[in-house]
Write a structure and sequence with these properties.
homodimer; 295 residues; alpha/beta; six-stranded mixed beta sheet; 38% helix; 24% strand
Chain lengths: 295, 295
């Protein structure tokens, strides 16, 4: 079996999955996205869920990445420790059958802490393999759990997760700030002011309440609150990600609506950032892995 | 009408209310607590809710404090600006009828920010009036929204809210950390280690995810996670509250299960704290207000 003759790639997360049929040149011929994330599928339901993907996209080999390899997924793919390059992922693929492989996540232990990722490694190392980012650079991957990854010689050398996206969603959906956070986030003055405030002041849990007080006391316009809150959270995130002074290239990859915010915030911190579409990076990474299975 | 002949005091919060029948010496003769917080009562339902309190505790004058005076409550009691002492609260009581008064909250504007409290002011100023705390001290009032208040000449001079309790509850109830946070928080090594970490490192949104990674990678015992998470959040709170060096007395007042944690965390930061029962402070404050209505 030659993977390079075409296969199906799936980026299978906690709450969503995205599946692509790739041709022999790695181009996407067909795709779909739905909400059948790992948590929506019963433990014994993954064979059926995979069969359904083949019904929709064709009977091809399958390469799966993301939370599908977690202990809540189809089959657990143990983390590959840092430093982790694309060959390390290929060497530790977990095979469910002859034609179904799961890409492992990556772990980091050091500096008195530990960290894990599942799914982002394909995008990060795909961007490296495709020459889209500096193999010695710093990469920011915003999402539910933003990852700051330091690359060295094209491998993930070290990384740190900041749960910015999840905190924003918790505040938006369940907190006392909820009614203030229902609009769209804009890169406006409120956003930039909040980013700079959080970069200069490590007072996030106070500043979030201050937002509500500011609206109650007429100091802040209600319609600015959502951008201000996002700026506070992203600024605190960037404060952590850029805490070690570095002059290397900063790349931000992920969903464009998030990379836009992070690139603007990194700009407010006085640095430039290259923005990359996470989906393109994922396809570059998963094609590279398939190529190396054949090799 | 003489309030000092006995009245009913109600500490009426967002999700709970606690009502006390106080005799002519200010002692509690009867009381009850229930979940009829302000948010559970329809806008036109407060007269009935108040009538029910009188049915249970007797037909006496009523002094109400807390969110009952907010724009979601019975009648809005505008904030009294800092510096705010107990006489300022008495002067700005909002009367619904001849026998029903609502204690206003307190606001602070300065240092480029604004802040608000409703309910804590009765406890803080009650503790001052009863001589339980230093009238020039620093007071910490943990709860859903912890307040750090600087007193000056017995008035609330300045204060800052940190939404520690709410963040902990959001993480416990709705986040990816939820299954790790279901136990009870202990003042143990994990708690103290996390407090010290957060006092030294302003990296809370990363450390919270690190907790999950630590458990996944076998670096942290699952049963330590809830105390560690609480320690991280309370440590970050104390980092903010003690950011201005001060040698004044620190008093922690509120519910004993929370003051215990904050006093231990302040201890881990190398300071001592006096612990006071918030309910006693509330009764001291509300009796003092009633006395001054008569005066």
């Amino acid at each position: 079996m030659r993977w390079a003759e075409g296969f199906i790639a799936v980026d299978w997360g906690t709450s969503n999955r995205r599946a692509y049929r790739l041709d022999s040149s790695g181009r996407c011929e067909d795709e779909f996205e739905d909400h059948q994330g790992v948590l929506t599928i019963p433990a014994d339901g993954f064979s059926d869920a995979v069969a359904e993907i083949r019904q929709r996209l064709g009977d091809r080999p399958l390469l799966l990445a993301g939370m599908i390899g977690s202990n809540r997924g189809w089959k657990e793919a143990p983390y590959v420790p840092c430093p982790a390059g694309i060959d390390d992922l290929v060497a530790k693929l977990v095979w469910v059958g002859d034609r179904e492989a799961i890409v492992p996540g990556v772990s980091y232990v050091g500096q008195g802490r530990g960290d894990v990722m599942r799914g982002e490694e394909v995008q990060l190392l795909g961007a490296v393999a495709a020459g889209m980012i500096d193999p010695m650079g710093l990469v920011c991957h915003p999402g539910t759990h933003n990852k700051w990854a330091t690359l060295s010689q094209g491998k993930i050398h070290r990384f740190r997760t900041v749960m910015t996206g999840e905190l924003f969603n918790l505040l938006k959906e369940h907190s006392i700030l909820s009614d203030l956070l229902q609009g769209e986030v804009d890169v406006n003055d409120a956003f930039r002011q909040a980013v700079r405030h959080s970069i200069d002041n490590a007072t996030l849990p106070a500043d979030l309440f201050g937002l509500r007080a500011g609206v109650l006391l007429g100091q802040m316009k209600k319609e600015d609150a959502v951008s201000f809150a996002s700026g506070l959270l992203i600024g605190a995130d960037i404060r952590i990600g850029l805490s070690i002074p570095t002059s290397v290239q900063i790349a931000v990859l992920g969903r464009p609506e998030l990379t836009r915010l992070y690139a603007a915030a990194i700009g407010a911190a006085g640095r430039d950032a290259v923005e990359l579409d996470g989906e393109k990076c994922f396809l570059a990474g998963i094609n590279e892995i398939a190529k190396r299975i054949d090799a």
